[in-house]
Amino acid sequence: MAADTTILSTDVGVWWFNNNRSKMLTWEGTTGTYTMNELYSAMQTLQDESDTIDDGTCFNADTPTEYTIGKIDQGDNDPWYITFELMEHITGGSLKTSGWAHVQGSNTGIVIVPGTNVDIVPGDCGLDIAGGEDGNGTLLELISGFRGDFLVIRPDSSASGDEFTGGGDGQTITCNGHTFTQSSEEQNSGNMIWANLYSIGTIDDYVHQYIYQGSWDADTATTPATDNSQRIYSVNSSAIDYWGEGHIDICIPTKRWWRAESDGAWDACDGGYARVFARKGGDLFAYFEVATSTTSGGRNPIPLQTSVDLNQGTGTKTISFTGTVSGGPFIDGEVIEDQNNNARGILDLSNSDVGSGGYLSYFPIAKDGSGGLLTAMQSGQTIQGATSSASVTSDGTPQDAGPAVTSFFTNSAFPDIKFGFTAVTAVTNKDIDNNGTDEHWGIVVDCNSNTLAETYEWLKYICSYTQGETDSVEQALEDDLSQSNVFGEEFRGAMGYIGYSAISGTLAEGEAVTQATSGATGIILMHDTTNDVVLFRDVRGSFNGTNQVDADYDSDYFTPDEGSSFAPSATSPFGTFAGGTFFGARGVIIENWLSNDENSFILTDIEGTTRERPTSVPITVTNLHGNAITETDADLVAIYTLSGSGGDIDKDLLTCDGGEVEGGTSIATDTISTWTPSSGRLLLTDVSEGDEYIIGYSSWDSGTDTFTLDSYTIANATTGTNANTIVSTTDELDTLDRGDFIWNEDQNAGAYITDVQAATNTVNLDRDITGQTSVDTIKVNVVPLTLTSSDTVLPLIMHGYPTASTKQSSIIYPGSTLYIRVKVRNSRETDLVNGPIKPYSADDSITGTDTSKSYQVTRTIDTIIT
Fold it and tell me: What letter does residue 673 receive in the DSSP assignment?
């Protein structure tokens, strides 16, 4: 059927009640928008005619920006309906409905029926529709999109036989010979509110804003699961929304029309809240959470501010081209566009190759007017700069680039993020400022031996627009906290904390809580059960350190003694980067940073205190012969501290407390100096016997002056294990390294690993452990004897076999001159190019004016050694 008449340049159809009880407004156009006032005014004018005055009034203007549609006139029995599709073309004001709720026996209203569409089409709207078991009415709208398939129907009456319940187990619904399979859920009904959102501020014209609605807490939802946080798309789409790039002025439905409820019980989704994000690659991010009116929707400003991020300059896609650039040249930061399908990107010229047969690097952006859809450029098409008019002919499909691929990173591997207390406890150095006390943290960013600049670009990438179900944030939350459906593009970081003095119950990470009196709400992101600290995400209101904090869905609670809410890092959820320094968002700790970055980050712990590393001095040894750990002929590099200028290696620097037994996993000593590396190797001297051992440690505690050894017990040794070889049935040996200390408790003997053969789960040793078999108790990096108070320890600044031509460590300057000796040896390599070499040794000192130290090894081939 067709509309009876049209208004607003024929874009809006008006269906009168006498047209098979349709009485509705529909969208008949293709593109474009109208203000709520324009729609209201056009209908007021249309109804002010002699032949249209008989129909009930369509709209009431409550304020210049808030309107009501439905049953307006006294005695009007059937409400005006406005389609969800039409409301996607309305700006400048909000809309609520009156009389839509179907109430059995008293109000006909409208109903929405969930199910699966078979072949009903939009052209069936306005026609009779009937259920196989119950229900008769007029079809008003067909909805098929990200919420599922639904029919919007005006029942013939309020009687029970016209309700489309489907008997509780579904039914076949027929309209114009076409069918729809109702689900086992009954129809639902209620009054709707469309809130008006409009952005203000300065934002990039090419930013596509997107909106999330709903709660993350699974406990709030019965059925369906879509009550959880979900991105808003066009009602008839599963991939695109209904607004363009740049600023927005839109209406969004704020009541859960899709959810099965009792008659008339549509409630406000997540209390009317909506979260608006502006996160384009290459820009500083912005977001705003708005609380819309649950009675009128209201007209709601969304303040946002975006600008170019000078520290996120590497595009995440490339497209190659044939031949040379025509015209131009290209301009860094301009829009490039596929002239065939209008796919677009922001050009990253500094990482492009604009020579013949080169490639363009870019940040993908939404195709103009496509509802935010990112469209891939195509091969064999003209790619042109919008400002420069420079163009190339593409010859391939776009490829991931920059922080989207491992080759971008120094360590050829992605960084990592981890959430929750378990992840934090595994961090080696939680005492960032080396004051002897671990700080409290809740989110871990593992640099994975990549630079902070690279790590920052990756953190921005995984939180940018379109990072959805397969991204690192969602995966980390699911793996570490069993919290799914929180995607990188909507993650905001920590927003509040409490420290508590008492707890009742468990209150697991992922639970929703509410504080008495303050009314603050949040979801537990990290619960530190050792230090009694809780970190929250998605906070509303302000937590304090006084009022009880209760779990939303059981009787568990905290009794806090401190707490507050705080603003997250809007421009980048995990932290910002400026002037070569990474500023971590509150509660974020980093690990596995490069030595050169030791003094290039400032972090803020959960309680809000900024923490940074004491002055660190990176020490680099270059011109080394390094190779894979499967090889046995790399250099051996060591750096020792000396007793003084030109003095001996200070092997008795630390004296053991004594008492550790054979197989022990820690060593307590007298005061450990602040220069000691956070992890590395120790030179342990058994003074009574004169024996020395090199043992790896994973951390040290300044409070107890104890080294925690990097210990491990080999549990799966198997056939093939002999005096100088250990073979395992698993990959447990893969994490071991050349130079790690092996101790066989049964044979009371030790050796050092020369190479690790991961492919065969094998390690080889530098000497025989006579009698060793697979049934022996074999341990890695443990105490090889019962220690006494006469035994000594020297932490080593560096010790190991490099895998590249350089090896680096760093120390904290201790406040006075530190004398060191660098030693490099290699008698294992026999190619007379890399070795064998004559031993290299160099003495030096580190003072308070040193920012770094570097030593280039003199490689003199030893032709005498045999």
Answer: P
Strand 778-780 versus strand 741-744 pairing type: antiparallel
Q: How many helices (H) and strands (E) does the chain have?
A: 5, 63
How many angstroms separate the CA atoms of 158 and 109, rounded?
8
Six-digit token pair at 113? Answer: 């029926």
Structure tokens at 834: 């890399």
**Six token digits for residue 806:** 């350089």
CA dihedral 729, 734, 739, 743 (to 10 degrees): -30
The fold of the 712-780 domain, in CATH, is: Elongation Factor Tu (Ef-tu); domain 3 (2.40.30)
* 581-584 and 601-604 strand pairing: parallel
Strand ranges, E, within 508-662:
512-515, 521-528, 533-540, 549-551, 557-565, 575-578, 581-584, 588-591, 601-604, 610-612, 616-622, 636-641, 654-655
As a whole number of angstroms, the distance between CA 314 and CA 316 comes to: 7
What distance in Å separates the CA atoms of residue 775 and residue 154, rounded to the nearest whole number? 79
> DSSP label at 297?
B
CB of 861 within 8 A of CB of 836? yes
Structure tokens at 833: 């190019």
Angle at 172 between CA 167 and CA 177, to 5 degrees: 145
Kindly list the distances between the CA atom of residue 686 and the CA atoms of 437, 586, 796, in Å, as whole numbers in the listed order.
Answer: 31, 46, 17
- Mean residue pLDDT of the chain comes to 94
Burial class (CB in 10 A: 0-12, 13-18, 19+), 66: buried
CB atoms within 10 A of CB 624: 24
| Distance separating alpha carbons of residues 133 and 187, to the nearest angstrom | 13
Residue 857 DSSP class: P
Neighbouring CB atoms inside 10 A of 111's CB total 26
Candidates 196, 254, 155; CA nearest to 67 is 196
d(CA 166, CA 181) in angstroms, rounded, equals 10
Mean pLDDT score, 790-810: 96
DSSP string, 471-521: SHHHHHHHHHH---S--GGG---EEEEEEEEEEES---TT-EEEETTT--E
Query: Parallel, antiparallel, or unpaired: how do β-strands 172-175 and 128-131 relate?
Result: antiparallel
Distance CA 810, CA 851 (A): 10
Query: Scanning the structure block, which residue is given the tokens 């091969």?
Result: 379
Mean pLDDT along residues 560-580: 97
**Percentage, residues of the chain above pLDDT 90:** 87
Task: State the pairing for strand pair 344-347/443-446.
Answer: unpaired
Question: Is cis: bond before 224, omega within 30 of 0?
Answer: yes
Query: Half-sphere exposure (CA, 13 Å, Cβ side) for 572?
Result: 28
Q: What are phi and psi of 387, to 5 degrees?
A: -95, -45
> What string of DSSP letters covers 774-806?
TTS-EEES---S---TT-EEEEESEEE--SSS-
Given a contact cutoff of 8 angstroms between Cβ atoms, the answer to whether 523 and 536 are in contact is yes
Phi and psi at 472, nearest 5°, equal: -70, -35
Q: What is the per-residue pLDDT across 714-761, written as a single tens digit (0 to 9) for each?
A: 999 999 999 999 999 999 999 999 999 999 999 999 999 999 999 999
Under a CB-based contact definition with an 8 Å cutoff, are residues 709 and 666 in contact? yes
User: Phi and psi dihedrals of 324, rounded to 5?
Assistant: -115, 170
